């Protein structure tokens, strides 16, 4: 067994080396392509599109192309230092300093804020961090006049506004989500890059940032789950760890933001989100085809025993982040190199083996149950509430994977538009409960707000999950709604039982002669075929058969449209049937079985 494990580790090490070389070669290819191209213009006409139409993507495509040029030439100038890279970097740095506003249009209010140009949002902070670190690492290979221009812009736009404000600067300071981590982590890294010769100003700033970031770590569930989803874990933790690493080195080990059991639990969250096939949890604004950041993962694996590196094929390459965040890009190289060096020396932390292979992970505080099947797929279900970060009205929902195909789906994030984050959010299919596999009660879905929640969540870690979630609907006619899911990891069968109990009048009688009407709603992105009491869902490689017990009436389905996170339209098929009343007329019970079948 020892020789086999050693061989597996060697294979993984060689895969990571190949990944690293491909990553750097991708940057070189982009550099060759963009070397003679001018920076695209992010002008007023594009900036105003969001205000006029709600469309974010058109301006952001130009904005992030400019950040891509910053990342490419910034990274290559640091790593390789060729004169042609440095020369192009000068042009890019100057161009970004000339931008009217570093924040995105969706994060400023020009009509009401005369100082909108100076706005410390996610992307302005990221920009400041990138510029500050680049001029710090490239040093005097850049003209002093340009370095001064960069420093002046970083101080004027980001550092001074934050330092001169009284806490909280904005809603994100002291917040419990990744705005806090990204903004404070970026500000901290920028300050450590530019202010080490001003300790009297730097130290109070660092203490303020540390206080704020405690709330970010506190925002994770006790079992380390990021309620916003895997991609948001990656986003926030990249900036948290980047700052933590710089702060640790600056204080010569005296301040260690990673030295917390909670941080270890947060780190281990990532591997729980990956199914063996490479598909990922897509609850909330997640993505079922998410990728991990190799640099962040290597950093965490150097720190915590038990931290696993998922298959290298699941790692995002340089083009994996359409925002081209320099913080992550440079660390994908540097931290991965450090990991490989330690791996070759046998200097990585070793996890103790407990001898037990678990097919299911239970995140009790987050109320998530994740089961992994023999084909590489699995099942996941959630409780929670409808006031979670990046909330979807999805209490009690589940999805079902065979291999790498999600046959019963969770759509994850939709296209980010103005409506998506305002009053129209729950008119969008992927955000309301009609876009999730949960019952429809009296023709209505779940309601938004933290008070609409799961009252009971139990999972045994062996495939059985029980969720009581009548409270998610806010319907006075319903006393209880309980969903029991039983998943067999070896056979990959899923049995679901939903039981609705009607509320009673004060005299003890039911609210009506029958309990409130209830129908099932299952969501897939493959065309279903209904016949009798069965539904066949056939993907490209795998298929499943759903068998409904005690069906009255017929099974029907409706095609709907979903705008995915990239702004592309996709088809969604919502399968439904009425759930019959029990003879006692106080309950409705539905049982159905999902099983993997051959195509």
Task: Based on the model shown, name its key terms.
single chain, 599 residues, alpha+beta, Glycosyltransferase, Beta-galactosidase, Chain A, domain 5, 8-stranded antiparallel beta sheet, 5-stranded antiparallel beta sheet
Please tell me about this protein's structure.
- InterPro entries: Chondroitin_lyas.
- This is Heparinase.
- It comes from Eisenbergiella porci.
- A hairpin with a 2-residue loop joins strand 14 and strand 15 (534-538).
- The longest helix is centred in the first third of the chain and has 33 residues, at 2-34.
- The mean pLDDT is 94.
- The protein has an 8-stranded antiparallel sheet, with no helix packed on it. Strands 1-2-3-5-6 form a 5-stranded antiparallel sheet, with no helix packed on it. A 4-stranded antiparallel sheet has the order 7-13-18-17, with no helix packed on it.
- With 599 residues, it is α+β, with helices and mostly antiparallel strands.
- It has helices at residues 2-34, 44-53, 57-79, 83-97, 122-138, 144-163, 178-194, 199-218, 230-250, 261-272, 294-303, 326-345; strands spanning 360-363, 368-372, 378-382, 385-386, 398-402, 405-408, 440-441, 449-453, 456-459, 464-468, 478-488, 493-502, 518-524, 528-531, 534-538, 543-548, 556-563, 569-578, 587-597.
- It folds into 2 domains: 1-345, Chondroitin AC/alginate lyase (Glycosyltransferase); 360-597, Beta-galactosidase, Chain A, domain 5.
